[in-house]
Amino acid sequence: MIRIEVCGLPRPGGSKIPGLRKDGTLFVRPASKHTSTWMGQVEDAAVEQMTGELLCGAIEMFYEFRFPRPKKHFRGKSETLRADAPIWHTNKPDLTKIIRSTEDALTGIVWKDDSKVCKRAESKRYCNGNEKPGVTMTIFEIHDGINFD
Predict the structure, then answer these.
(1) What is the pLDDT of residues 49-68, one digit of tens each?
(2) Cα angle at 8 between 92 and 28, to 5 degrees?
(3) Angle formed by the axes of helices 35-49 and 95-106, nearest 10°
């Protein structure tokens, strides 16, 4: 088992914007200007916390993404949560897109390619108490003969 903790604001990946340079050549860039910052944070945390060789078998991933709470979740100017403050982060970015940018950032550090990920569970929610925004990833290499009951 590998556990990687990343602090930072999760950002989406996958969506691209095409463009044309002044010299007439085409280019494609991420739609979010913050994607590279998030991917860099994931890479840095993975390099620091990863030990051992690249995983080469089938992989199972567990993601728990955390987002900062908006001010409207709190009573007045206090740090007391309102009774109706939600747990789940139901706004953008999409969960699938933040997974995409996160998995792409782990390529070459945890695995050779993110196609190795065969099974996963994920969530995105607001931070509780003193938690910081980011993601906690738990990674397992799956071995043949596992029971999926």
Answers:
(1) 998 899 999 999 999 999 99
(2) 60
(3) 50
